Amino acid sequence: MANGDLQKAETYCNLGLEFSPQYADLWANKGLIAMYSGNKGKAKEFFIKALRYNQEHLQAYQNLGVLYLEEGAYGKAHDNFKRALQVNPDNLESRYDLGLTFMKMGKTKEAKKEFDTLLAVNPNVANAHHNLGIMAYEDKDLETAFEHISQAAQLTPDSAEVWHDLGTVLMEQSRFAEAREAFGNCARLDEKNSSCLNNLAVAQRKVALTDSALKELKDTQTAENSAPAMYLLARQYREKGLLTEEEAAYRKCVKLDAKFAPCHFGLFQIFNEAHKQTHAQTACKNFMKFGTSEEFPTEYTTCERFLANDSF
After folding, report:
1. Across the chain, how many H-helices and E-strands are there?
2. Cβ atoms of residues 77 and 97 within 8 Å
3. CA–CA separation, 60 and 248 (whole Å)
4. What domains are defined for the chain?
5. Where do the TPR repeats lie (predicted)?
6. What does the pLDDT look like over 85-104, one tens digit per residue?
7. What is the pTM of this model?
8. What is the gyration radius of the CA atoms in the chain, in angstroms?
9. How far apart are CA 208 and CA 110, in angstroms?
10. Cα distance between residue 233 and residue 262, in whole Å
11. CB 203 within 8 A of CB 186
12. Separation CA 149–CA 144 (nearest Å)
């Protein structure tokens, strides 16, 4: 069975049972073989037979508990994990699974007790830390949530789910730069995880908006309230990836001075990147109307090419 040859393993079990039909270990092994083969019904039947012949069979209780837990029969899962712990109170696997069962049943107090007991023996069980962090987050205890989930991230740095949950806690704590890093790790590990990607963008935006230098610049430029000031602010927003704020600054710019060509070109860049062709055409035409090729040679050439290509 250790080599993955389940058919041969079952043959040996059946031969053994011909000579010792009441040998609990063989029935438990048949249960494992059925379990690994995906035949959960047969697996339960064999584990129950093992317990009929040995009511102190730890692995039979443990594996029955796992099967019941997987199918959502939490009461039966609870009973089997409890019996496993009566056989061996030091069995950490049963302790963890009992805590997880309590968690599924909504009994957070009991779940925390089991996970805390487990971690007192082995503080390096990442899933126990993760689950304690999830429950703390649900209880609005953000500091405890951060403590446990960050520990889980250290123990399992390749878990996208853990990094996602750590980022979620950090966002609630307004620790946006750290949240950005956590969601970045999640996105790196799971490139198709839309929640990680979306939250990464939100965290990046929060970092930019809370940047003290940018805030000071915004206050200064807004107080000046001129087209050049709004243009400078818009470019800073662009560097930070704040497209909504960038567009708003350009719009305010052309409202203050409709002939300020650089802001029309800035609007063209935004619309062109967003594939808003009609708006991009208008912005380019306004730029060329108020700007010259001598003042803005690169920008002017860009708009000429855009309008020429767009006419075909």
Report:
1. 18, 0
2. yes
3. 66
4. 134-210 (1.25.40.10), 213-310 (1.25.40.10)
5. 24-57, 58-91, 92-125, 126-159, 160-193
6. 999 999 999 999 999 999 99
7. 0.72
8. 31
9. 42
10. 12
11. no
12. 9
